[in-house]
Write a structure and sequence with these properties.
Elements (H helix, E strand, L loop, with lengths): L1 H5 L8 H17 L4 E2 L8 E2 L6 H9 L29 H20 L1 H5 L3 H12 L11 H21 L2 H23 L5 H22 L5 H26 L9 H18 L5 H8 L1 H23 L9 H21 L5
Antiparallel strand pairs: 1-2
Length: about 350
Amino acid sequence: MAHQSCVVSHPPPYAPLRHHQSQHHNRNNNNNKNNLVQFKYPTLLLPRTHHHNASASASNLFGFPRLRRPNISLNALDSDAPDPHHQGSVNFGRNESYQQWDSLTAKFSGAANIPFLLLQMPQIILNARNLAAGNNTALMAVPWLGMLTSLLGNLSLLSYFAKKREQGAMVVQTLGVVSTFVVLAQLALAEAMPLPYFSATSVVVVSGLFLNFMNYFGLLNAGIFRLWEDFITIGGLSVLPQIMWSTFVPYIPNSILPGAISFVIAVLAVTMARSGKLSEQGVKFVGGISGWTATLLFMWMPVSQMWTNYLNPENMKGLSAISMLLAMIGNGLMLPRALLIRDLMW
């Protein structure tokens, strides 16, 4: 066997020796099929190779497996080998790396509070100056439908992240709700937003903030919060198509039909989900509607603003470019966190 081990890299010309080596190789493969070779370091927890070339024969002859790139990164500095009977034990290195990235992206997400805190301040200050000067027309440059979509999006995502206990995202969404509501209040004072819509929005905002934070601190009954979730699911799915439609009025007929149809569909979906008439996947889909409608509301906000700018370019002086810049910076700081947790809602 010592002579065989020395000449493995160059196959000997003798047929009996090759035959003996082939038998040894096949027997070794059969005995170790689907087995794992576990070394001291976790990065070497790798399956044996089954290739029939010379290098594979050498690996099996000496008992060493061919190295493969692991699918996950492990901390090789830890000398404790993972328990092969516990699948989660091989992820301890990955968890340590994940915790580092989790801490870093959480700091980025927390830093996003600064631009989001200041996001609406330039617009609020500009609106206050125009109101003090009696220039209510300048506030027409800010579409209340666009602001409403932003506020509803913030409120829906606040509920989503409150349920997931994402504190940084909750603070960002809360700042968005409060600051946008202040802008809507200024638009209502300038009669740029109908008073009935503002009154209904006020009730929803106060209720939403109260219920979400009560739920976050564990002071709210689960059934009540479930009703709130159903409300924002139905409300978001009803408001989204109606706002999309209303953006292009008067170029299209003024109608509540899109919102009414969506409202009926949303009520049926929620009712079927709560009564157990949907599959598990269907229930999950309905549960994610509020988050997706919030995301689409955010996506529609710049469309509404661009359309308003196109129709009334002279009113663009009533917009604050600094607010748009702050929004871009804030979203950029939150992007790493979104990629880390792989949550498309971000």
